[in-house]
Amino acid sequence: MKRKIIQQLKLWKDNPARKPLILLGARQVGKTWVMKHFGQTEFENVAYINCDVEPLAKELFAADYNIPRILLALQAITGTKIEAGKTLIVFDELQEVERGLHSLKYFQENAPEYYVMAAGSLLGITLGKGQSFPVGKVNVMHLYPMDFEEFMIANNVSKTTLEMLKAKFETCQPVDEFIHQKLLSLFFIYLIVGGMPDAVKIYIATKDIREVDKVQRDIVALYKEDFSQYESEDKKLKLISIYDIIPAELNKQNKKF
Predict the structure, then answer these.
(1) Could you tell me which of 85, 69, 91 has the C-alpha nearest to residue 21?
(2) Which residues are registered as beta bridge partners of 47?
(3) 132 and 12 in contact (C-beta within 8 Å)?
(4) pTM, full prediction
(5) Is the pLDDT of residue 256 over 80?
(6) How far is the C-alpha of 91 from the C-alpha of 50, rounded, in Å?
(7) How far is 88 from 83, CA to CA, in rounded Å?
(8) Which ranges in the chain belong to alpha helices (H)?
(9) What is the pLDDT of residue 120?
């Protein structure tokens, strides 16, 4: 599926003043797919490490921030030869590694010739390990669920139609009624399916809203599982309670959220 953020990543790659990039976004919005896809299409190879599941990642930055040592360790862990300008280094869920976020400062200062990307959920990046954020030493981009334009592309709306729509919007001209009704029907489906890539993928494959509903419920359950990272039972219960009442509150005339 096409994600518009890929174009922004290409601009980052071509910028001689680029810094290590942090890709922020909630869980399940497609951060891992975007980073891997970008690496596979724009670089000779990708050195990818998921810091949440790779045991050896826990020790990467424990001793020091010596970049040559870290690069050798990454090559050993990923089995990928890392070459400046040819390899995209990807740290997924970097906030799970002690001193991981701070290490990006030293990539920027001591090894700017390497392309480095890191990702994590907004919650994890904010609260992860109490680490200091490398302010001024990184570039930051935000990835959100798929918007309606991306949803249209995924549903094979032609490039010609999309360009026509943009031209109409820019000049404030009405769209032909036939096209308007067709895309309005697709928009109603988008309101049900939403923009989470897994839900969109299932809809494209099956056109079955019941299957989409299963994916959506799994995502909701996964978000609730994230609350378990808090040691305080009281805090967990409060978060779950707030999370559960959001739909009802949004349906009220006087909204709290």
Answers:
(1) 91
(2) 89
(3) no
(4) 0.87
(5) no
(6) 6
(7) 9
(8) 5-14, 31-42, 67-78, 100-110, 122-127, 148-154, 159-170, 177-193, 197-206, 209-226, 233-250
(9) 82
